[in-house]
Write a structure and sequence with these properties.
Largest interface: A-B, 24 and 30 residues
Number of helices of chain A: 0
Mean pLDDT of chain B: 94
Number of helices of chain B: 0
Strand content of chain A: over 45%
Shape of chain A: globular
Largest sheet of chain A: 6 strands, mixed
Strand content of chain B: over 45%
Radius of gyration of chain B: 13 Å
Low-confidence stretches of chain B: none
Structural class of chain B: mainly beta
Number of strands of chain A: 11
Oligomer: heterodimer
Distance between the termini of chain B: 36 Å
Number of strands of chain B: 11
Helix content of chain A: under 10%
C-alpha cells in the first residue's frame, strides 16, 4: 500500500492566496523529494530535503522536513495561475524503491 | 540533451495483445523505474532496476515484465493486455535510487495506453 500519505488530495485556491500541502510517512525517511506535474504533463523534480528540520525556499515555495523525518510540507504564497497542477512527495522505501504519495491536485481560481 | 525518452506516446491495444513500451535515457543513470498513474492513485511503482542486469518488482508488478540489458534502456512488456492496464505509464531514471543516496528522478513524457 501507499507508504506516503498526502493531504489534502484536492485544493481550490484563489489567485493571490497562500496554501499548504502536507506529506506524512509511516516510517522515518532518509530524505524526501517533491515533484510537480502540470495537467497533461510529467512529474518534474522540485526539491529534495535530507536533514531533520530542514527548511528550503524557492521563490514563493517553502519546503519543510519534520524534526522526526516522518513528515514534510510545501507552502506556496501569493498563488499564481502557473501554480496549477499536482504536487507529489516521494520517499525511498525498502529495497531501493521510491514511493510516491497520491498527490495534491491544485486548481487556481482567477 | 534528450533526457528520458519514452515511445510510443499513445497506444490502443485489444485485450490479450502484447506490447513493449520503450524507455531510453542518455544520462548514464544507474537507476531506472516504471510507474503507472491512475486517477486518484498517484504514481505506483511497477518495476525498477539498480543497474544493467538487475531488476526487481515494485508495488504493482503483475502482468508486466522488464529487462535491463544495457544502462540506457529499460523496456516494459505487457504480456497479455487487460482493460485494468489502461493507464498512463511513466519511465524515470536517476543517478541513484539507493535509500539515503536516492537522487532526483527524471521522468519521460509518458505513454497513454488504452486497452479495449
Amino acid at each position: 500500500g501507499q507508504q506516503v500519505m498526502q493531504i489534502p488530495q484536492y485544493q481550490h485556491v484563489q489567485e493571490g492566496e497562500d496554501f499548504t500541502t502536507y506529506c506524512n510517512s509511516s516510517t522515518t525517511l532518509s530524505n524526501i523529494q517533491w515533484y510537480k506535474q502540470r495537467p497533461g504533463g510529467h512529474p518534474v523534480f522540485l526539491i529534495q530535503l535530507v536533514k531533520s528540520g530542514e527548511v528550503k525556499k524557492q521563490k514563493r515555495l517553502t519546503f519543510q522536513f519534520g524534526e522526526a523525518k516522518k513528515n514534510s510540507s510545501l507552502h506556496i504564497t501569493a498563488t499564481q495561475t502557473t501554480d496549477v497542477g499536482t504536487y507529489f512527495c516521494a520517499g525511498p522505501y525498502g529495497n531501493n524503491r521510491l514511493a510516491f504519495g497520491k498527490g495534491n491536485q491544485v486548481v487556481v481560481i482567477p | 540533451n534528450a533526457g528520458v525518452t519514452q515511445t510510443p506516446k499513445f497506444q490502443v491495444l485489444k485485450t490479450g495483445q502484447s506490447m513493449t513500451l520503450q524507455c531510453a535515457q542518455d544520462m548514464n543513470h544507474e537507476y531506472m523505474s516504471w510507474y503507472r498513474q491512475d486517477p486518484g492513485m498517484g504514481l505506483r511503482l511497477i518495476h525498477y532496476s539498480v543497474g544493467a542486469g538487475i531488476t526487481d518488482q515494485g508495488e504493482v508488478p503483475n502482468g508486466y515484465n522488464v529487462s535491463r540489458s544495457t544502462t540506457e534502456d529499460f523496456p516494459l512488456r505487457l504480456l497479455s493486455a487487460a482493460p485494468s492496464q489502461t493507464s498512463v505509464y511513466f519511465c524515470a531514471s536517476s543517478y541513484s535510487g539507493l535509500g539515503a543516496r536516492s537522487t532526483e528522478a527524471f521522468f519521460g513524457q509518458g505513454t497513454r495506453l488504452t486497452v479495449v
